[in-house]
Write a structure and sequence with these properties.
heterotrimer, A alpha+beta (270), B mainly alpha (124), C mainly alpha (390), A: 270 residues, alpha+beta, Alpha-Beta Plaits, two-stranded antiparallel ribbon, B: 124 residues, mainly alpha, 2 strands, 5% strand
């Protein structure tokens, strides 16, 4: 869709709303949704990671699949660091399962890329998947209370105080990144991190790109945990001189199911 | 009066029922004001005592929205001292006992804030 | 008018007590769920909506189905429906209350439900669903009550009420359209991502809703001495027939698109629902009996309500036919559509869902509560009818 038509539709839509519900509705729509800034050029590939707003950050991650294939302990380290720092519970019963980042096979992470003759490494090894922090997130669109929302720096956050537990976001997420607290998670947290809250039962949770660390100028826990290997690289996609952009320039990367137009911020070096 | 045999006992039961709080607590709870244990080594707070006592729940909500939703995580500075906008990383660092500080008033006032469903109280 | 609900014969009270028993069981089960969490259900992170939301989806349709009486009567002046439009309106009220109860049962944090109002979010379809469901509930309560009151006083209803009656017609369509949009706007759920979902929902709603009303009317004829009239029943059966066939046509189109295009994602859920889906050497097929039950019941039902001998000459066969249609579309939409949509998961794994007893008892209890409300409302409506006749 070209820009003129898009803008026309936006203006037309907003003025209709203004007529119907007054300016308050419009203000809410513009400030609350985070969608207006999120809509970048439609298309595929890294190109559309372009800044929606000049000067704004957009955090992203590059995952080097080969390094995880070569050293399976990297995955364990990353998961452990994440789940430890965020008080993610460890349930025995799979039906209660909660996970922020986990290892899975290529065919599960990229079901839209089937291959009859897979190379052995891809067929047998596992790679990490987590919330994609989409630039055009379906979960944010679906949430009826703005309990899940997009920060200006592109991270998709969760407000556990506001979540009503309707699980619409879980149905909306095309990557299966979200988990629900089917029961009180507290007794299932092995080692409690006193600096970060747990969750209550009845709310949805997911990877938050360590927003509490990133916005304080630190690296996400999983990236930190495997920092020696450079298997995970985190950075600002909107900064052309950042390390992550250099890697994206050099290596061929793919995103999980980009044809849905969600514009994931997590890239994979195959 | 018709049916006075039903109406009068009914009225008595009704009055007794709605006055439960009065006769149930007769002479018991509700008379002693709570005495929260104040921190020994900290003398200042982000607001004067009277204000923080009355407004802490609103302040926590404002902080919550600023930090969590707007990403405004910078600490607040009061009289040259920096305070992170955080229940666990600020308030509870001085008020190290939830039982002896928070709970005394909350129990007295019969409020059960859901903060503690997620946020962790300091280990006591 | 409520006093009409307080006088009834023994069967009336026994029926209410029977429903009350299931409501009480459900209340206990709900308390258990409330204090433990939704972990008492069979839902998982992969099948994150279960029978609560699927019942909700189906019942929105039943509520919308009432419009098939209101529309012919008020727009086309089809007089024969005059006596029974109230049955449609009251059925809508009971169904919508069931919908609300199912939503509340499904919320992880029910006490925060009002957050949908405190933080209105126009880009969420759930927000709009709440708006139209409440709107339709209030419209039906208002119209039903005002018109029934006027009828009782044997005067014409006030003119202003017609504005709300006409308004309720687009609302009926919108409740089920917006409910369909909860599903059909989600990327990455192939089975739901189909423009035919809303029309299909409406078609099955306009069959299932009136089918339940016909069953009710036939029961009321026996137990409450209330005759809806042959012409009204006959017209409703015609509506049910066409709507039911339209629904099957839309289901058939889904099959064509999936299997002729041969795109795996478009076929998977249909395969899972109707034939079982093979994955890593295991065939997952726990919904297959339900879906074939749906097909068989539809065929039985449509045969019974179209063959002249069963349709016009025998109330029992007609009632069974309508009940089959109702049950068939309950299996289709109240079981298959929602649960099937989660298979396979976004990471192409298959997780099957089995509701727990606690969950099933809550579900039965909400249905019982709905029929409890419906019984009382119908008792009032029929009490007024009898009063006028007397």
């Amino acid at each position: 869709m070209d820009t003129n038509r898009r803008n026309f539709l936006k203006v037309a839509g907003l003025s209709t709303l203004a007529g119907l519900g007054g300016t308050a509705v419009v203000d809410r729509l513009v400030t609350g949704a985070g969608m207006a800034q999120a809509s970048t050029e439609a298309g595929h590939g890294a190109e559309h990671a372009a800044p929606a707003k000049a000067g704004a950050n957009r955090y992203g991650m590059v995952i080097d699949i080969k390094k995880f294939y070569q050293d399976p302990s990297l995955g364990e380290k990353a998961i452990h660091a994440c789940h430890q720092v965020h008080n993610v519970p460890n349930f025995q019963d799979k039906r209660d399962e909660i996970k922020w980042i986990w290892m899975t096979k290529f065919e599960n992470a990229f079901p839209e890329k089937p291959n009859l003759y897979r190379d052995e490494a891809t067929a047998t090894n596992t790679l990490p998947i987590l919330c994609n922090h989409c630039d055009n997130p379906p979960c944010v669109r679906a949430c009826p209370t703005k309990a899940t929302f997009r920060y200006e720096d592109g991270i998709i956050g969760m407000d556990y105080h506001r979540c009503i537990g309707c699980r619409f976001c879980m149905a909306a997420c095309p990557y299966g990144s979200r988990s629900f607290n089917w029961r009180d998670p507290r007794p299932f947290i092995a080692h409690v991190n006193q600096d970060y809250p747990s969750r209550t039962r009845g709310v949805v949770e997911k990877c938050n790109f360590c927003v509490e660390l990133v916005q304080a100028g630190k690296l996400p826990a999983c990236v930190e945990a495997v920092s020696d290997s450079k298997a995970l690289v985190f950075g600002n996609l909107n900064d052309p001189n950042s390390e992550i952009r250099k890697i994206l320039k050099e290596a061929h990367t793919i995103q999980r199911n980009p044809s849905l137009g969600t514009l994931p911020s997590v890239f994979y070096i195959v | 009066m018709y049916d006075s045999g039903k109406i009068i006992p009914g009225l008595i039961i009704f009055v007794l029922f709605i006055t439960i709080p009065i006769w149930y607590n007769r002479g018991g709870a509700g008379t002693e004001p709570p005495k929260p244990v104040l921190p020994k080594d900290a003398k200042t707070c982000v607001l004067p005592a009277a204000e923080i006592r009355a407004e802490h729940m609103k302040l926590l909500n404002v902080w919550r929205d600023e930090v969590l939703r707007d990403g405004q995580r910078a600490a607040v500075t009061v009289d040259g001292k920096e305070y992170p906008k955080s229940l666990m990383l600020n308030c509870m660092k001085c008020h190290t006992s939830k039982k002896q500080f928070c709970d005394t008033c909350h129990t007295y006032a019969s409020v059960r804030p859901y903060c503690w469903d997620c946020h962790l109280a300091p280990v006591e | 008018m409520f006093e009409k609900a307080l006088k009834g014969n023994n069967y009336y009270w026994m029926w209410l007590a029977f429903l009350g028993f299931f409501i009480a069981v459900a209340a206990v089960c709900y308390l258990r769920q409330y204090f433990y969490g939704l972990g008492l259900t069979g839902m998982t992170r992969d099948v994150s909506w279960g029978i609560y939301i699927s019942q909700f989806t189906f019942l929105v349709g039943v509520a919308a189905g009432g419009v098939m009486l209101v529309l012919p009567y008020y727009i086309h002046n089809f007089k024969a429906f005059g006596k029974i439009t109230i049955l449609g309106e009251f059925l809508a009220i009971a169904s919508l209350l069931m919908c609300m109860m199912f939503i509340m049962a499904d919320l992880g944090q029910p006490l925060r439900g009002l957050n949908v109002l405190f933080y209105p979010t126009p880009h969420s379809m759930l927000f709009w669903d709440m708006c139209v469901l409440w709107g339709y509930l209030l419209l039906n309560a208002l119209c039903g009550w005002v018109i029934l009151t006027a009828e009782r006083k044997q005067v014409h209803p006030p003119k202003w009420i017609y504005f709300f009656v006409y308004l309720s017609i687009p609302f009926a369509f919108s409740i089920h359209t917006v409910t369909a949009m909860l599903y059909c706007g989600l990327p990455g759920r192939h089975f739901w991502l189909s423009a035919i979902v809303a029309p299909r929902f409406l078609a099955s709603a306009f069959a299932a809703g009136p089918a339940l009303i016909v069953v009710m009317a036939l029961i009321l004829k026996r137990v409450a001495n209330f005759d809806a009239g042959k012409q009204a029943i006959d017209k409703m059966v015609t509506i049910i027939t066409y709507a039911a066939i339209a629904n099957m046509f839309f289901v058939g189109l889904e099959f064509f698109v999936g299997f002729y295009s041969d795109i795996p994602g478009h076929k998977h859920t249909l395969q899972y629902l109707f034939f079982g889906l093979e994955h890593h050497g295991h065939v997952y097929n726990n919904l297959v009996p339900f879906m074939w039950g749906f097909v068989v019941l539809f065929l039985v039902g449509i045969a019974l309500i179209t063959h002249p001998r069963t349709r016009r000459e025998n109330d029992l066969w007609l009632g069974l036919g309508c009940a089959s249609i109702f049950l068939a579309f309950w299996l289709d939409k109240g079981i298959g559509f929602v649960l099937g949509g989660f298979v396979p998961t976004p990471t192409e794994e298959i997780v099957e869902y089995y509701p727990t007893f606690n969950e099933i008892f809550i579900t039965i209890g909400v249905w019982a509560a709905g029929f409890f409300i419906l019984t009382i409302l119908y008792k009032i409506a029929i009490g007024v009818e009898h009063e006028i006749e007397a």
